[in-house]
Amino acid sequence: MSKKGRVFSGARPTGRQHLGNYLGAIQNYVALQQDYDCIYCIVDVDALTTVETTQDLRQNTFEMTIDWLAAGIRPEESILFVQSHVPEVLELHTYLSMVTQIGKFTDLPTFKEKVAQQPENVNYGLLGYPVLMTADIVLYKADIVPVGVDQAPHLEVAREIVRSFNYRYNTKVLIEPQVKHTEILKVLGIDGKAKMSKSLNNHIELASTPEETTARVREMVTDPARMKRTDPGNPDVCNVYSMHKIFSPAEEVEMVNVECRRAGIGCVDCKKRLASNLNTHLEPFRAKRAELASRPGDVQEVLVEGGKRARSIAQKTMEEVRQAIQLP
Ligand code: ATP
Ligand code: MG
Asked: Is residue 10 within 6 Å of ligand 1 at its C-beta?
């Protein structure tokens, strides 16, 4: 294949995906398939650093898989798999950990964030998470990793680990991944303040019914300065308007922009229109998703196949890695 390079990206199995995941990650994954060989991984092992119970892990993996497939990940072309199906990553993680200096690890923003979120569970895996992430990337010899700004420090760690490994064992086996800064727009939740997130329960799920979506949109916080229907509003500070810009036809976006400012349209009407456009946009996705949900065996097969393809790349890399270390 004459594509530009190999992309790797992983996401934790958070279950049904929301508009934030869709606009911030999945759409980008789908688009990258055009120009790159893509490997997309559901990182279930990573999830163990933060989950309290694993009882939903399988279901969450399934829900996320059908969301990704319905959104346009093409398993005939890209590799879609589950991290734990390729145990070689755990072996590589151990070798990499021994060429990794722990100096800066406790200062990484995501580590500090997790410590604040779960002070009662500051586990070793949480600290080593960037090493496991590095193992995932380099195991598949990915040259390109699409990340948002928050993940950039981890990519720097990954590059350092690769240099350190190659230097220590006088090899070129591991490839230094390049960051591909994706323009990830930060989607706000229905509160209009925080980033849309499942754990904050301020999200709109892609798989919701049209009625659920409409009800959720109705809850969205608009321009807080607009108290009454007759007050003019400011679309520039309104999350409903931001979503109109993504999901509504241009003329309607312009109409909302103009009419909101002169109180020609109220928030209730404005939200009804958004909900309707959002539902129209998601209709094909939802039909495909429902179809996939009715064939769980085939979905599992996609992951098993993806795992096999990923594993054959991984096994080859590991032979080279063991050789470089001079393990007997
Ligand atoms: P959690 O509640 O655990 O944070 P989540 O559903 O928000 O879960 P993440 O694991 O944080 O999901 O994110 C998965 C992917 O979706 C990441 O690539 C992330 O950048 C993207 N993403 C998540 N939320 C948003 C958002 N609000 N706006 C843009 N991108 C987002
Ligand atoms: Mg999040």
From this structure: no
